[in-house]
Specification:
single chain; 221 residues; alpha+beta; four-stranded antiparallel β-sheet; 4 strands
Length: 221
């Protein structure tokens, strides 16, 4: 199973403060999301602060952490294996890296408030505004997938898009079953990337990176 090998995840949420965290737990947990969009964020905060990254893993949309691993240099074989066998371990590592880079964002008495929904290509995303005790509010986008879970690409697309364009371009020229599986799964994150571009504070440069990744992904559609 692929493990986090770089600090790329610290870039996933820009302008956040750093912090420490223990290694991800490896105890299996039921893969069920939260009862409401706000509960998904609240349970994520609780798991990250525990820290219990195995529990946090269930709060990411399944398969997205495996795809995000492309931004960190995971091989196509590793990503395909995680997509086929389940990516809870990779999701635990995602949240571990997130916590190391952004502990202050989800630390302490965090307030989470639902702020409507946004539709992209028939997919509904619930906006949840998260406000830490000291710091600026951020918006996370939540989807219903066997419970409510954080959509990694909708919420953190700006920190992933530019690092995924190169690997996805290489996938297009790789004629293997593994590459085909990954490219097929990447089609599912297009609505997420579009939703990410609609988040408050998204800069023109970031929007361009998100659209560039979408254009590469959809070359095979």
């Amino acid at each position: 199973m692929w493990r986090r090998r770089s600090s790329v995840l610290a870039v996933v949420v820009l302008a956040a403060c750093g912090g420490g965290a223990d290694d991800p737990e490896s105890t299996p947990v039921p893969s069920v999301g939260a009862d409401t969009p706000v509960a998904a964020v609240e349970e994520l905060v609780e798991a990250i602060n525990a820290p219990d990254f195995a529990d946090a893993s269930r709060l990411a949309v399944p398969g997205q952490a495996a795809l995000a691993a492309l931004a960190e240099g995971a091989t196509f074989g590793e990503v395909a294996s995680s997509l086929s066998e389940g990516d809870t371990d990779v999701a635990a590592n995602f949240w571990a890296g997130f916590a190391q880079g952004t502990a202050s964002f989800l630390a302490g008495d965090v307030t989470a408030v639902e702020d409507g929904t946004v539709e992209q290509d028939g997919v509904s995303f619930h906006r949840v505004v998260v406000t830490p005790p000291d710091g600026d509010s951020r918006t996370l986008l939540i989807r219903e997938d066997d419970g409510y879970r954080i959509d990694l690409f909708a919420s953190f697309g700006p920190g992933l898009a530019d690092k995924m364009i190169g690997p996805v371009e290489r996938l297009l020229t790789t004629q293997t079953g593994e590459a085909g599986l990954i490219l097929s799964e990447l089609q599912n994150i297009v609505p997420s990337l579009l939703a990410s571009a609609s988040l408050p504070g998204t800069t023109p440069e970031t929007s361009q990176q998100l659209i560039a990744l979408i254009e590469v992904i959809t070359r095979v559609s």
